[in-house]
């Protein structure tokens, strides 16, 4: 291997093989492979595992689906109170307006709280699903990478 190729393999292996992509795997040459050969094998196995698993640990993580579009609401209690006061005022005068405002505000507040709780729940479920997808894809990549290196005479833990 000429000097330029050695430098390129070492540089790419340093970026891809020893970086965050493989931070959780230990690779030990069982057959006395040189550092240069180990770096070359790591790089080739990185490329193979990336292609085989469809996951690139060096790429910026991206979501696999759109986040839920619901947004938390505010002001529903006030709107309910105003609506209740108007209806209560029409049906029962001043005392009816006060009771209507209280009832409308209470109902509006309950609706607002339930809506916001649903939005939070949907968001939480989506985040968990995305986290699970990333973990599964990363695990598949790690298994492919380890299989490649073990096939080339390395111990991978």
In short:
The protein has 157 residues and is mainly alpha-helical. The protein has 3 helices and 2 strands.
How would you classify the quaternary structure? single chain
Indicate the proportion of strand residues. under 5%
Overall residue-averaged pLDDT value: 75
Radius of gyration: 30 Å
Number of helices, where a helix is a run of at least 4 consecutive DSSP H or I residues: 3
Amount of helix: over 70%
- Strand order in the sheet with the most strands: 1-2
Low-pLDDT segments: 1-22
Q: Between the first and last Cα atoms, what is the distance in angstroms?
A: 29 Å
Coarse morphology: rod-shaped
The major β-sheet equals:
2 strands, antiparallel
Q: Using DSSP, what is the number of strands?
A: 2
The chain-level structural class is mainly alpha
H/E element order: HEHHE
Description:
This protein has a domain at about 5-65 and about 135-155. It has helices at about 5-15, 35-55, 75-150, and strands at about 25-30, 155. A two-stranded antiparallel sheet has the order 1-2. It is mainly alpha-helical and about 160 residues long. It has 3 helices and 2 strands, in the order αβααβ. Helix 1 (about 5-15) packs across helix 2 and helix 2 crosses helix 3. The longest helix is centred in the C-terminal third of the chain and has 76 residues, at about 75-150. It is rod-shaped and about 95 Å long.
């Amino acid at each position: 291997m000429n000097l330029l190729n050695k430098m390129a393999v070492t540089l790419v292996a340093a970026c891809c093989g020893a970086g965050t992509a493989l931070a959780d795997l230990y690779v030990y040459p069982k057959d006395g492979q040189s550092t240069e050969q180990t770096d070359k094998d790591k790089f080739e196995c990185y490329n193979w595992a990336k292609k085989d698993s469809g996951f690139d640990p060096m790429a910026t993580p991206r979501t696999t689906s759109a986040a839920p579009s619901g947004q938390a609401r505010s002001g529903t209690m006030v709107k309910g109170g105003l609506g209740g006061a108007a209806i209560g005022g029409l049906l029962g005068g001043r005392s009816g307006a006060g009771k209507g405002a209280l009832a409308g505000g209470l109902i509006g507040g309950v609706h607002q709280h339930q809506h916001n709780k649903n939005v939070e729940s949907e968001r939480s479920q989506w985040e968990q699903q995305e986290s699970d997808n990333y973990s599964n894809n990363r695990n598949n990549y790690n298994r492919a990478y380890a299989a490649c290196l073990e096939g080339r005479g390395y111990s991978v833990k």
